[in-house]
């Protein structure tokens, strides 16, 4: 019975409506990735590029920059913006620390951040999707499928985290954002 449910979950197309639980759409390029250099982030208040650690930016602005940098493949810049965020124990911060470390080649460190994010918030479906994709990369499809089931159990059916992990399991190709 469980096997039939899992097979159905892996083959029924999802609605791919959300990139992660923190924002519904992929980040659009802004001045941060179009005009700023050396990991600087656009400050809409001052209308100029600033270093993330300057203290001029709030965590939501920094998180937007993290996502934009990660989406653009600028993982070191994403980490600089993450480091500037005030609450390093926030599960969204932990999730993106995991993502950036994994994509920079440190799978163990990435997994430890995903585990910390899920300990903080078991319903973090973005962390579950990224962790599941890490399992796909290491060939542990059983563990990846467990994360897929957890995503659905936490209300993530039809979301981007669920759809991207399902596709990764089916194709062996993971996402870079």
From TrEMBL:
TPR repeats (start-end): 91-124
InterPro entries: TPR-like_helical_dom_sf, TPR_rpt
Species, as recorded: Roseovarius indicus
Entry protein name: TadD-like Flp pilus assembly protein
Signal peptide residues on this chain, from the entry's feature table: 1-18
Keywords per UniProt: Signal, TPR repeat
Domain of life, source organism: Bacteria
Keyword Signal among UniProt keywords: yes
Region (Disordered): 19-38
């Amino acid at each position: 019975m469980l096997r039939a449910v899992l097979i159905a979950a892996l083959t029924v197309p999802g609605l791919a409506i959300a990139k992660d639980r923190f924002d519904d759409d992929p980040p659009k390029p802004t001045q941060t990735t179009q005009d700023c250099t050396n990991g600087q982030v656009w400050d809409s208040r001052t209308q100029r590029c600033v270093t993330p650690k300057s203290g001029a930016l709030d965590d939501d602005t920094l998180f937007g920059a993290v996502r934009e940098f990660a989406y653009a493949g600028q993982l070191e810049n994403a980490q600089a913006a993450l480091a500037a965020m005030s609450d390093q124990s926030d599960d969204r911060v932990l999730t993106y620390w995991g993502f950036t470390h994994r994509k920079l080649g440190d799978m163990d460190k990435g997994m430890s951040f995903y585990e910390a994010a899920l300990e903080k918030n078991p319903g973090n479906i973005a962390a579950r999707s990224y962790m599941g994709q890490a399992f796909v990369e290491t060939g542990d499809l059983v563990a990846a499928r467990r994360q897929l089931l957890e995503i659905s159990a936490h209300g993530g059916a039809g979301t981007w985290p669920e759809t991207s992990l399902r596709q990764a399991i089916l194709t062996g190709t993971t996402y870079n954002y």
